[in-house]
Amino acid sequence: MNAKQTTRNVLVLLIALVLAFLAGQDFRDMQQPDKIYAENPALTRVAKLSEYNPNLKGTAGDTDIYVFDSGVPGGVALVYGGTHANETAAVMNAITYVENVSVTQGKLFVMPQANLSAFSATLPLRAQMGHMTFTLADGSVRTVRMGTRLANPVHQWPDPNYRLNSSGRVLEHGEIAEIRNLNRNHPGMEDGYLVEMVCYGIRKLVETENVDVLYDGHEASPEFRAVNFLIAHQRAMDLGSAAILNANLDAMMEGDMDGYPFKLDLSGATSWGLSHRALGDNTQAMATLFESLNPVMGFCHEKVTEALVKDGISPNYVHITDLGLLGSGELTDAGSPIELRAGYHMEMSRHLIGALGELNPEKTLTISGLPTFNDLVANGFEGILKPVK
Amino acid sequence: MLYVYLVLVALLIVNIVWNMLREKDVFVQVDAALVLVPLILRLLLIK
Amino acid sequence: MKRFTRILALVLALAAITAVMSAETAYTFRTSKEERVVTENGEFTADLIVDPVLITSIGQSADVSMLDALMKKVGATYTFDPIAPAEEVAKYKTVIIASGASSKGLGAAGISQEQETARAEAIMKTVEENEITVILAHLGGPGRRGALSDTFSDMVLGKFTDFAAEKEIPITLLATIADAMTVLKDLFAPVAQ
Question: Residue A1 is nearest to which of B22, B30, B44, comparing CB atoms?
Fold first, then answer.
């Protein structure tokens, strides 16, 4: 090969390296942690999940847990989002709690980003937006990453071809990648794959802190059959029923006569590895999970824009609704904005906490300080979130 | 197992680069370059 | 052209007949924002309730839990047993049945579909033999949009209201689940001493 040829070959190689560098910037940006406002005076401390599973220390799975301890004996709850990092309303609900909640009886644990690794991951071929941004009244911008359903493969790789996990669920064939899905690997393993260790940490948190009720926030596509459903372990059915009824009664008292579109369903006996089944079966907590409607998670939406992602506006899905083809995720022209979805999470979790004391007075957990549903919807997160220094 | 896979990726990169440098057809080189980008990102555990 | 005209006439006639039939069977919602509780075919009042009261389920859906929550809220006195067998039902004077099928509920209760059907038939025989007052509660209402919801309304709500009209059974329709509080309070709330 002559010198000219060699020079050209080296040049192509250098161009490839430059492309790798440039492409890598987007992915490295996704690995920058989100700034969460932690100056709520009611916040007792910020714990790490590795306190409950030391094997997580120094790993990408060691997520923050915000502890609100009133010091007064009472009920204990765990509210978390970010099991799936693309289900942003659940994350925003948890962030709303962290910024605003105050606890005067009992103890509250809030975990906004349960599968922390997943927030750094991106989803190939789905044109996903990497961040949701909110411009606050003072001009500052709050940003939240929108990751993926599964942990980042750079943190947990390779995926095994076969895994019988701690729940008894077999992950193989089409479910191989689910070894990186938090919500298939509960109750976890102390020293397993990263996601299994995260699940174990959550289990130990629930056991160690005597959590009475846990709330796992999720979102679902319009095609999903259980949108706006509270899925409850059998021991949590009474609690779930009371919470849904109270939420609707409170809404009626505030003039919204139609209330909330919440429905209740029992956790399936074969939902191995899912939080409502596995944590309900393996801990003392009443385990619940709620799904709000997120049109961008479906397959029939239009081009991905901020209107779709933030406001949930999708004429395609409105048309599909009018054709009567959706079981529960029906959409109108008003869309499904992030504030409405997070508001549903807030009302559902708030009323679960309220019902805990109603059904078990010795387990009263008294919280306050959260914005009302109407305030959140009217003012948006731009009006609710606090600036982060 | 992670380090085994990283070694495999590294070997693949070396093989591709070696062939790229010896290849005369620029379009084949470009193809190889496209394949190299995600492999490099995986070797560095960026993506 | 003559053949085409005949075919067109036939198609139009079929469409007209279908439209008429659809118009006759399509369910019309009784409740509205202004009228949230509507009762048809006469009144069902608290004096028709005789203690003791049992709440049970046929189908084992989550609706029975919602009914339990409603009854607790109004302070009613009752026994809650979603899987009560017919022999148990016989001990009560008033039975509220939450109807709704759920394979998950059946699985959790350890009952097969066939066993639940047999239990339902036995209960129906028992309530008739013992002249037990039965209230059927169906809480899983439809969303009010779309052809699928309309089909559901026609199939389910239509069945309930048509059957109630035919048998002259009082039926109360509610705009939302929370509106059940009003009805259940009137029927079951303890009277202040």
Answer: B22
Interface predicted TM-score of the whole assembly (ipTM), two decimals? 0.87
Closest Cα partner for A359 from A247, A229, A243, A276? A243
In sequence order, the 6+-apart residues with CB closer than 8 A to the CB of A167 are A184, A185, A186, A187, A272, A273, A277, A278
| Nearest residue, CB atoms, C176 vs list A259, A322, A327 | A259
SS3 A107: strand
* Positive/negative CA dihedral, C51, C69, C57, C63: positive
Give residue ranges of A with CB < 8 Å to any C CB: 234, 237-238, 240-242, 244-245, 248-249, 251-252, 257-259, 261, 263-270, 321-328, 330, 332
Are C89 and C126 spatial neighbours (Cβ–Cβ below 8 Å)?
yes
Chains C and B touch (3+ CB pairs under 8 A): no
Query: How many degrees, rounded to 5, is the angle at CA C39 between CA C37 and CA C41?
Result: 170
Q: Is C177 exposed, middle or buried (0-12, 13-18, 19+ CB in 10 A)?
A: buried
In C, minimum Cα distance to A230 occurs at C62
Question: Residue C150's closest chain A neighbor by CA?
Answer: A324
The domain segmentation of chain A, as residue ranges, is 1-30, 34-384
The residues near A356 (Cβ < 8 Å, ≥ 6 apart) are: A75, A77, A212, A213, A239, A286, A363, A364, A365
Q: Residue C124: which residues within 8 A CB-CB, separation 6 or more?
A: none
Could you give all domains of chain C from N- to C-terminal order, each with its CATH number? 29-188 (3.40.50)
The model's pLDDT over A198-253, given as tens digits with 9 standing for 90+, comes to 999 999 999 999 999 999 999 999 999 899 999 999 999 999 999 999 999 999 88
The chains in contact with chain C, meaning 3 or more Cβ pairs closer than 8 Å, are A
Residue A312 Cα, gap to closest chain B Cα (Å): 29
- Considering only CB atoms, C146 lies closest to which of A263, A266, A324, namely A324
For every residue of C41-60, DSSP letters joined together read SS---GGG--SSEEEEEESB
Q: Which residue has the tokens 């599909």?
A: A320
SS3 content of chain B, % helix, strand, coil (to 5): 85, 0, 15
Quick check: A9 and B21 CB within 8 A? yes
CB atoms within 10 A of CB A363: 19
Q: Could you tell me the end-to-end alpha-carbon distance of chain B, in angstroms, rounded to an integer?
A: 18
Residue of A264, A267, A289 to mutate when probing chain C, most C C-beta within 10 A: A264
pLDDT tens-place string over residues A275-314: 999 999 999 999 999 999 999 999 999 999 888 999 999 9
Reduce the DSSP state of residue A349 to 3 states and report it.
helix
pTM (two decimals): 0.91
pLDDT digits (tens, 9 = 90+) for A327-352: 777 899 999 999 999 999 999 999 99
Q: What angle do CA A202, A203, A206 make, to 5 degrees?
A: 85
- Average pLDDT (C109-128) is 93
Cα distance between residue C100 and residue A85, in whole Å? 35
Residues of C in contact with A265 (CB under 8 A): 62, 102, 104
**Touch between chain C and chain A (3+ CB pairs, < 8 Å)?**
yes
Q: Which of B1, B36, B42 sits opposite A16 (nearest CB)?
A: B36
> For A34-384, CATH number?
3.40.630
